[in-house]
Amino acid sequence: MPYNCVCLIKQVPDTKKISGQAMNDDGTVNRAALPAIFNPEDLNALETALQIKERYGGTVTAITMGLPSAADILRESLYRGADDAILVTDRKCAASDTLATSYIISCAVKKLDYDIVLCGRQAIDGDTAQVGPQLAEKLGITPITYMEELQELANGRITVRRAIENGWQKVRTKLPVLLTVTDEANEPRVPAAKFIMKYKNAMAPIEVEKAIRNDNTALDEQAVKQLIEDEIRVLEEKNLLIKQWDLGFLEADINWCGRSGSPTKVHRIQSVILTAKGSKEVEPTESGVSDMVHELIKEKTIA
Amino acid sequence: MISVNRQGEVWVFAEQNEGKLADTPLELMSKARKLADKLGVKLAAVLMGDQVSELAERLVQYGADKVYLIEHHLLEHYQANTYAKTLHDLIHKYEPQVVLCGATINGRDLAPRVASSVKAGLTADCTDLQIGDHEVKATKEVHKNLLFQVRPAFGGNIIATIINYDRWPQMATVREGVMPMPEPDVSRKGQIVEEKATLTKEDLLVEILDQHTRPKKVDLKAARVIVAGGAGVGSKDNFRVIWDLANALGAAPAATRAAVDLGFIDKDHQVGQTGTTVRPSLYIAAGVSGAIQHQAGMSDSQKIIAINNDPDAPIFQIAHYKICGDLNDIVPKMIKAIKERI
User: What is the spatial distance between Cα B132 and Cα B145, in angstroms, rounded to a whole number?
Assistant: First the structure.
């Protein structure tokens, strides 16, 4: 029996590879110091979806909410074997917290035919692990968080092993289900050459527009619009168009999106600079080390 | 969501598993007590389960004025839906101003589901909570006595203070180990309020087929002295120097994520953002570069000794004793000095 999987992915700054200062002097995040990557555990979610497709048939749709540049990770999903890619992008999505984000994504997922929704356990920029459970609540489907292994999928039921505090549990539930997947679940595949060849020209409309405007600065607006329209049609015919949905298309209630839909606000952001009070250099010699140990024993730090 | 309710109580979700209270909500009680006192409201613990009433008194001893006790056979094992539904109903009934959960696996499963259904704001993995005022820059409107939800973000590179001034309750999960466990006061008196859950079998969305837990191999949170090794230790064999030093000091051996990922030691020993948060009297870091993610789990140690052959290693910025050199040379010298003196 085939299953339709919808996989939520996120483009995130690579917080583990920061070059230079994470913060600008004006207190904003220095995005230039943070290369954008495919959120690591979302790759585990995508891998789970692809394995389901290979084993049982069905489709894998990758979907992301983000800036136009997030089309990069949609292409990376196509390169790994996803069938369809959807970019949810709209300026009115900006400043969405997890509640608003889960609402917007729920509007998008409701437009799709799905049995299993998958996302990474958490994204490395915020590490909140909130959007998955919140999305399941908004979709009215069963959430299973912290999935470590997909064990069985049969007769409309799914059995998985998930983490619990200091251990694991094996749980079974009826589809549809939302899974949040940990990095224990599998080893994500690398892009396949045949899919790179097939999809390297896949683009979202907003990217098509940008490219054509850059290349045709001399043309008038009418002609540029025509070129954009033609190119989008060509991509669509070749099945290379990354779908692009805005809040209007999603029929989302704007009061629940972006800043107005977000109860949590930032009061203050500080850069982390930790320094020790009263530090001393210890010579790497027998007497240096011995003096230090003596000092620690004397002040009863070492019993 | 509920509207701003200044008389609302401060709540702590008192997570229990198999009849045993989890550590994190107990750790949270001393901080929640301070928040409630500052706001001039009651501190209540919310205890759910099947036959768990005997745990209620303990929550009072740890600082609760009130315990909402909800017992139901369908609450015997934690499940997202049954627990979320019950907490959701209780929030609508009593309209607390603050709802806190431990950022345990269950807490991080439960809190977002409740926040979504209540349509309230939620901040994950806080490392500190305070009460303070916030001015909205655009309107100059000042919101007094809000819950400041302090948490690391961008992989620990920044610390953000989050607030929620209009759609209450103000919800947050709090990291394990960041708040010291209070001493129980057996003479404290509190009120136990029994509440009913309206649940049917259909609310159990999953079947739990099997479950295994095992105690952690090491209790890092309780250790007075910790000896941690990083990738710089070089190999699993060489990690023996960390064990030797730990044994000489009666300390707990620990490691960075890099050392755990390299297979030098079991994950139970991991300190840092994705491991345990510790605050020992003495933390000895050998071959640890001091990535921000590691510092997030140990920078509150009272004394830090760093041993590293790279003079520019970030760990030196937070170390009280900086020893620049080869750990294979220095650690044996330390062991010798300790054995001579103790």
Answer: 5
